[in-house]
Amino acid sequence: MDQALLLIHNELLGTDLSVYWNSERCYHCLLQVLVNVSGNGKPGKPSIAAVAVSTQHGSILQLNDTSEEKEVCRLEYKFGEFGNYSLLVKHVHNGVNEIACDVVVNENPVDSNLPVSIAFLVGVAVVVAVCFLRFLLSLDDFNNWISKAINSRETDRLINSELGSPSRAGQLGDDTRPEAWRPSAVPLRLRCVDTFRGIALILMVFVNYGGGKYWYFKHSMSWDKVRIPGVLQRLGVTYFVVAVLELLFAKPVPESCTLERRCFSLQDIISSWPQWLFILMLESIWLALTFFLPVPGCPTGYLGPGGIGDLGKYPNCTGGAAGYIDRLLLGDDHLYQHPSSNVLYHTKVAYDPEGILGTINSIVMAFLGVQAGKILLYYKDQTKDILIRFTAWCCFLGLISVAFTKISENEGFIPVNKNLWSISYVTTLSSFAFFILFILYPVVDVKGLWTGAPFFYPGMNSILVYVGHEVFHNYFPFQWRLQDNQSHKEHLIQNVVATAVWVLIAYILYKKKIFWKI
Ligand SMILES: *[C@@H]1O[C@H](CO)[C@@H](O)[C@H](O)[C@H]1NC(C)=O
Ligand SMILES: *[C@@H]1O[C@H](CO)[C@@H](O)[C@H](O)[C@H]1NC(C)=O
């Protein structure tokens, strides 16, 4: 999978070639030896070496004359899945004796992204079909017609229970409605928050199940390969710290906010100044350790992947200070041995993506989530105030990310790095989170344009779905024997079905009112 066949034809008689390869995605990396092709072929019968090349990203190929270690030619090429290619290395006699390296396609690659496009279109079709059905059912004429056609009582029951939108806290945001609309004894549960949690969780389940074995689903999301201990421990520590912080310092929402509906514009932040102070102190510790802690044998403030990255100058510096602290305090053996940087950068030392230093930033991230909750509490029912704050946070965090990263993947002061939980990763993700809440809150809770289905079902049972998907992932219907283990299509179908089954399970549990909380 994600491979193509490359036949290297050495037509330079008497010249041995060393072929080096690297992925375009590997930043500032040392080239790696791919194969040697001898030059002892005969005219018209060159020596050929066959190699497999990765098709995930563009490839950089460099061919050297083995005896002189002199570059013969260098090219960049994006090979396609299961393609069959030839690289012809030969003399061209156009006056000067030049050497040409040309890639020829023997057999066309398959379009490995086609299944993703089809899956997406099927998803869109399902959404459109459901919307259309709901629209039909909302038409009185159509209802009457159906009622006559089948037992009317049954239809009413169906429409009210299955398709009617379950009580929406929504409609309340509308300022003209009387306050008495909501039974105040019932604690408000915001649908948009459950929906958001559900979307994140379902994406995570899909990625965890393999994401169709596409590299972009694996690397672009927030969990690569989840180990229950690491992630749950980190979540535990993170929530513990934030919860203790809030228990120690949280003040009740002032009455002026809830009753008079007038809340001083920065009250949500100012009233939690001790928490903010603590968070800023924590973040200073992260910055200080990351950029000023001397790490033996490594440049101070190194944030890179080590291994063959940075032209192989710092092979044992993976993760910089964060990696060093973990190896020092926990020892190599207790760390995760296969970080995602391993594949691309050939890292040598153990590095734990759920390490100690990164926990600081996940606490900061969780606290930003608490801040979103406070906005919803302090400015309850004041849709405009809430949306303004979501926008402000989204822009503020986004600008911090821009400043840290200089909008580039690797060149900025602090690159977005999931394995490090770098602060720019936290601000970027949180900025997106505020943006999503900015969209979901008015659509789901205020206007009630969307119930949040089907995402709020898993969102309301997130612990159960999370633990369940880990525990049962080896069992049918979450996994079965594939006919062709090398096919993205089959993996994609399997992973989409497994994810959909969890949504279905969450839906059934919701209907049975079973919720698993800790
Ligand atoms: C790749 O193409 C070459 C040249 O057409 C052919 O000789 C070879 O058998 C092909 N290899 C495979 C695995 O299809
Ligand atoms: C990196 O670590 C390996 C094994 O621990 C060691 O053999 C090697 O010399 C180290 N390299 C550098 C540049 O320190």
TrEMBL record:
The chain crosses the membrane at residues 116-137, 198-217, 275-295, 356-379, 386-408, 420-443, 455-472, 492-510. GO terms for biological process: lysosomal transport. GO terms for cellular component: lysosomal membrane. The keyword Transmembrane helix applies. Keywords: Membrane, Transferase, Transmembrane, Transmembrane helix. GO terms for molecular function: transferase activity. This is Heparan-alpha-glucosaminide N-acetyltransferase.
